[in-house]
Amino acid sequence: MKSSTKPLDNIRIFDLSSVQMRTFHVTWLTFFMCFFGWFGLAPLMPTIREDLGLSKSQVGNTMIAAVSATIIARLLIGRLCDTWGPRKTYTLLLLICSVPVFLVGLSHSYQTFLLFRFAIGIIGASFVVTQYHTSVMFAPNIKGTANAVAGGWGNLGGGITNMLMPVVFAAIVAAGYTNSQAWRLAMILPGSLLLISAFLYYKFTKDTPEGNFEDIKRVAQKKDKPNTKEVLTDWRVWALTIAYSICFGMEITFDNVAALHFVDNFGIDQKNAGLIAGLFGFLNIFARALGGIFADKVGRKKGLTGKGWLLAAFIVIEGIGLVLFANSGSIGFAIISMLFFALFLKMANGATYALTPFLNSKNVGLVAGVVGAGGNIGGMAMGFLFKSENITYGEAFQYIGLLAIVAGLVVAFTKFDLKNQFNGAPQEKIKVEGELAV
Q: Does 9 map to a domain?
């Protein structure tokens, strides 16, 4: 039976025969692997801090470096997805980023380690390709859910990385290597995973349900060329950028600081700290998907603005949970409050990208890039709080929680159901063919 060349209107989890579902599975799995490269060093930071003699401020700078490179990279990758295609874009990104992941073990000073963490941070742009590619493969009625599931299962890599990398490190030490050697050798695993993912992505995915960009006639793109100004002058895009800065920004920040926070504040060892931090990321197996599913259901009844209200509620509750976590007096309460704010944070991630593909049908990649970059801008800004010698990690979490409540109110007062000024149709009702610009 010939595979459909139209976007799917449902998710067939066990279907590997259609290009849409094959691309879906390879996309989320590749994003999952990217987290091993991006945050593979984070759960090993207690050891690296001691090995390189890093101060709190220097550790903070490396965290900022890990997310700041992604800001510009996400904007560029978003535009490349619109023009060059997600398949070749992702493959090249994976190949380039495997190099600093393999070579970070050569670092023997703060300066070289900082440089490598900055270079590795480019891999964070992989998220934009993931969301763009999923948006292309699925119809509007299921797009938010598909984006959320793919993003959530990919983000799950952040949790597994926190859990697995300390185990890999311990196994290398048990084999007779020193701690200094072990953390360096451990990074061979993430580098190898990126190379394997590059091969899988190039071989088993297509740019669109109809085929790759170079093999098909992109009629709609010829009529409606991408327009950067349309994106940058749309307040709705910036409202979602603010939202994503506080939810995904907190996610990548927590992936960076969690192990250190639990080691320093509660006196547990690196391995157990990694396991606890891993629980935070493990919620992505369902939580981000829930955000997308709920948003799609609300959207069918209340439109895009209804989705916005749901997103606002998630962010406000995330903020409340962060304040509770910041004031944890015991490891037990810290874990419970962490899971509470993590649940709503990840549902907010999913709800954000249930809105993003509908804001501008001709610039799906660029909108995804701008909003995605917002997540890293948030992560970078939070990094300055965690590097400060005058602010404790607990105080930093509390400040971010209060900012989240404010951000939620901003989103709540944004009207997302605007007429599309370029074609006169409500964005939620645009035909699939036009929306995908293929």
A: no
